[in-house]
Specification:
Blueprint lengths: L2 E5 L3 E4 L4 H12 L4 E4 L10 H14 L7 E7 L6 H9 L3 E6 L19 H10 L3 E3 L13 H16 L5 E3 L5 H9 L5 E5 L1 H5 L3 H4 L16 H11 L6 E3 L8 H4 L14 H11 L6 H13 L7 E10 L4 E3 L2 E3 L7 E6 L4
Parallel strand pairs: 2-3, 3-4, 4-5, 5-6, 6-7, 7-8, 8-9
Antiparallel strand pairs: 1-10, 10-13, 11-12
Bound molecules: (4S)-2,6-dioxohexahydropyrimidine-4-carboxylic acid and zinc ion (ZN).
The site of (4S)-2,6-dioxohexahydropyrimidine-4-carboxylic acid (DOR) has 11 residues, from loops.
């Protein structure tokens, strides 16, 4: 198959940053996706509806005029989030969900939640108002091996959360393990779903650590062993509506990645959909890409499916070595190498 036409996809997990950096990365997502859920882990984080709406305006101002890209905003859950802010969020047409970062789990998560009991009433309000909770699912205890943090989170945090809030809609973001695939698949109710990134579908931990350390492949949750990658590929291509596209494209300046303590995040937006096509093609499942990329997420969030189409062509092109990133530079995934699929037209 050399040509693949799909209903326009959405990105259900995206980092756009702010300021000069925002202006240089937003077009990479707007060239392809109709909508994206925008992560709130700015510095300082987006904790109120007013801040989210102001951030949305800055995003809109950075979108190329030819694009109708629609940023769907989120609130960053802290131990100071109030029930009334949740109500205000529900009433705003631009707020889609609330993001839960366990404190210390990842980039800019220091304002996150140390103990879910501190946000119990907020979770009850989210359940009442039917505002979805998006979860970075990793425990943070230093005693837990970094490769086991997602598995432990499911057992010790997610499972009790699901028991205690039977109607709360939850997305377990960027899943990386067979255990996560099994847990999400086993839940018969549609209230639990998961996003899967392109980088976790295409790479395993050898890509991070074999033959030298590869800072541009460092992300959280970490890349895992090949058996987990295979489980993710199986889930993404299963046609199961609980699994959908969320790139977690997370740009950082080259200097911040290539440093003695490099930060987590992989910049995939310049070829995000093309990377997913490559992964699906590996397992002869290109026919499953449209549902994963364009239907399941919209259905979970109760939003209309898009109606425009886009076309991918099997035609190699070279990914630049780096892109502008505010006053700095950012290195994309697969910098300087051939990408197999190309978007046929810009929208
Ligand atoms: O790799 C990651 N980068 N994982 C996250 O959870 C956060 C993200 C970021 O903001 O850079
Ligand atoms: Zn993320």
């Amino acid at each position: 198959m050399h040509c693949l036409t799909l209903i326009q996809p959405d990105d259900w997990h995206l980092h756009l940053r702010d300021g000069a950096a925002l202006a240089t990365v937003v077009s990479a997502s707007a060239r392809c996706f109709a909508r994206a859920i925008i992560m709130p882990n700015l510095k300082p984080p987006i904790t109120t509806v007013a801040e989210a709406l102001a951030y949305r305006q800055r995003i809109i101002a950075s979108i190329p005029l030819t694009s109708s890209f629609n940023p769907l905003m989120t609130l960053y859950l802290t131990e100071n989030t109030t029930v009334s802010e949740i109500k205000t969020a529900k009433e705003s047409e631009y707020l889609t969900a609330v993001k839960y970062y366990p404190a210390g789990a990842t980039t800019h998560s220091e304002y996150g939640v140390t103990d879910l009991r501190q946000v119990w009433s907020v979770l009850e309000a989210m359940q009442t108002y039917d505002l979805p909770l998006l979860i970075h699912g990793e425990v943070t205890a230093t005693s837990i091996d970094v490769f086991d943090r997602e598995k432990m989170f499911i057992e010790y945090v997610l499972d009790p959360l699901i028991e205690n809030f039977p109607a709360l809609r939850i997305v377990l973001e960027h899943i990386t393990t067979q255990e996560a695939v099994e847990y999400v698949s086993a839940m018969s109710s549609a209230r639990l779903a998961a996003t899967i990134t392109a980088h976790h579908l295409l790479m395993n931990r050898n890509d991070l650590l074999a033959g030298g350390i590869h800072p541009h492949h460092y992300c959280l949750p970490l890349l895992k062993r090949e058996t987990h990658r295979q489980a993710l590929l199986k889930a993404a291509t299963s046609g199961h509506p609980k699994f959908f596209l969320g790139t977690d494209s997370a740009p950082h300046a080259r200097v911040a990645k290539e440093s003695p303590c490099g930060c987590a995040g992989i910049y995939t937006a310049p070829a995000a959909l093309e990377f997913y096509a490559e992964a699906f093609e590996q397992v002869h499942a290109l026919d499953k890409l449209e549902a994963f990329a364009s239907f399941h997420g919209a259905d979970f969030y109760g939003l209309p499916r898009n109606n425009k189409t886009i076309t991918l062509i099997k035609r190699p092109w070279q990914m630049p070595n780096e892109f502008e990133f505010g006053e700095q530079r950012v290195v994309p995934m697969r910098a300087g190498t051939n990408i197999h699929w190309q978007l046929a037209q810009t929208l």
